[in-house]
């Protein structure tokens, strides 16, 4: 059940599909683009549920093994109920949200959104340096992993609909 391949070949292409789908879910969700968000969210949780369901009903044990940070977590039997729960909750939310007649206006990208997105992309050269050039030391791999986690947090924050700091005056 592992991914294998070399270079940009093999099973690693599936990771690109998952990353694209996850970035779409994050972007569409934070920016409030409802119709495609609903569709992509259900596809995301369906894929996760099918994959974790195959682990759940499989005879072999599935582990999340992080060699760089030195941990090994068995979760083959644990993750499927959570994926199923979140699939059901997302479908319930979509049904409730589609019944709501709330008119949503698309939030504009503020300066902070652009700065965070630029920072997100500026971290790629550092990751290349840590994972490819300085690959001979475990400490550089660990820094690269934490940098990647920080980068995903930045991506979420860069799509968040930040409010303007200016106070709107209401006149009657």
From TrEMBL:
Keyword Membrane annotated: yes
Keywords linked to the UniProt accession: Membrane, Transmembrane, Transmembrane helix
Transmembrane segments: 12-30, 37-58, 78-95, 115-131, 143-162
Name of the molecule in the record: Lycopene cyclase domain-containing protein
Origin species: Neobacillus kokaensis
């Amino acid at each position: 059940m592992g991914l294998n391949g070399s270079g940009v070949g093999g099973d690693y292409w599936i990771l690109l599909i998952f990353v694209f789908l996850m970035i779409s879910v994050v972007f569409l969700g934070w920016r409030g683009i409802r119709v495609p968000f609903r569709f992509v969210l259900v596809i995301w949780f369906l894929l996760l549920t099918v994959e974790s369901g195959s682990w759940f009903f499989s005879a072999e044990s599935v582990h999340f093994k992080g060699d760089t940070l030195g941990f090994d977590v068995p979760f083959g039997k644990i993750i499927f109920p959570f994926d199923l729960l979140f699939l059901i909750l997302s479908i319930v939310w979509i049904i409730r949200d589609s019944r709501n007649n709330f008119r949503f206006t698309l939030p504009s990208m503020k300066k902070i959104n652009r700065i965070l997105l630029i920072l997100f992309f500026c971290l790629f050269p550092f990751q290349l340096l840590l994972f490819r050039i300085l690959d001979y030391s475990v400490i550089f791999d660990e820094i690269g992993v934490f940098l990647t986690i920080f980068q995903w947090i930045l991506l979420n924050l860069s799509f968040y609909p930040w409010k303007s700091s200016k106070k709107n005056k209401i006149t009657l």
